[in-house]
Amino acid sequence: MEKIVNFCLIGTGRAGMIHGRNFAKKIANARLTALCDPSPENLQAAQDELQAEHTYQDYREVMANPEIDAVIIVTPTIYHREIALAAAAAKKHIFCEKPLAMNEAECQEMIDAAEENQVKLQVGFMRRFDESFIEAKKVIESGEIGDVVLVKSLTHGPSKPKPWMFDISKSNGPIGEVNSHDLDTLRWLTGREIASIYAVGGNYRSPEAKEDFPDFYDTVAMTVTFDDGKIGMVDGAQYVQYGYDARVEILGTKGSILIGDQSKHKLVVAHPDGQISRPAMHSWTYLFREAYVAEEQAFVDSILNDTETECTGFDGLMAVKNVNMGLKSLQENRIVKAEELA
Ligand SMILES: NC(=O)c1ccc[n+]([C@@H]2O[C@H](COP(=O)([O-])OP(=O)(O)OC[C@H]3O[C@@H](n4cnc5c(N)ncnc54)[C@H](O)[C@@H]3O)[C@@H](O)[C@H]2O)c1
């Protein structure tokens, strides 16, 4: 009989519903069996749409259900660790959204728990599953653009930060919430580790949050050096309002690669008033819609084939380490080296 992996979605907010919809309909050999969220409104809205067999408000009840083989953790980052540890102890495979946790120690606990209990752990860096990113990596590896000397990656998000994101002790701010993707992209495309980061930033769009959250920043720029002396640049911003913007430029000794642009479609409209227009990309949910499906399918396949996940706990840990290096640099206004966090 065909093996089916039964999933529980834990956290039915913005990103959770992307996974929920995909696991309900698009992923082979997977079933969305249960939903879990302490918010009755979010849980009910998710259940109205997804019609799962079980609903829970407390993740501990999920762990007690032997029908559930795997969990998708899409709660605010601060809860990832405790839920992942409970899932591992209950022998449930773990797909955990990025950033994996708040700090490296938490990530290491999650990795160790998954190993000890022999369950899979995959981190949600879906850009690694995007066709353009995959193609760029192939071109780099072919040697066509020579040696990579500079990788620039940016992510700008349109929406106002969620209330929990203003408290950077709970979210790490945009370096964690937004730029963990870019920091992962830098590692993944170059195959190198980040040796140092210098970050500058500020809160330019949410003045009302300044009094309660003086550390909050909504825009950041980071200069990075790799362990082979090559260079990286990352910039991030939340609440830019104009759309969702995720682009990468890779400069080699003999050529360069661009990934992404700001438009939603490959479409330009010429208007009778002499203006031309292109609709802007509006959301990460749209830009990376196929990449989410690909990462989810890869996770199910790694469970069924008992292979290593394509984006491992270690990748999650290194991204979190780099997030914390960036944050420390921003807060202390100095270059921070990797060995300081080791
Ligand atoms: N891969 C991506 O591109 C991507 C995009 C957005 C968010 N994320 C990540 O997904 C996670 C969630 O972000 P979001 O934007 O969906 O947040 P959100 O605030 O929209 O949703 C979080 C949900 O988790 C629920 N929740 C809170 N505590 C819980 C608990 N203990 N157990 C179960 N559910 C709980 C909340 O009620 C809410 O419904 C974060 O880690 C974020 O970084 C990843």
Q: Any overview of this molecule?
A:
The chain has 342 residues and is an alpha/beta fold. It has 2 domains: 5-127 and 290-310, NAD(P)-binding Rossmann-like Domain (Rossmann fold, 3-Layer(aba) Sandwich), CATH 3.40.50.720; 130-289 and 319-341, Dihydrodipicolinate Reductase, domain 2. Helices cover 37% and strands 23% of the residues. The strands form 3 sheets. The chain has a 7-stranded mixed sheet. A 6-stranded parallel sheet has the order 3-2-1-4-5-6, sandwiched between helices. Helix 1 crosses helix 12 (289-305), helix 4 runs parallel beside helix 5 (104-116) and helix 5 (104-116) packs antiparallel against helix 13. The radius of gyration is 20 Å and the shape is globular. Nicotinamide-adenine-dinucleotide is lined by residues 10-16, 36-39, 42, 59, 74-77, 79, 97-98, 124, 126, 162, 177, 284.
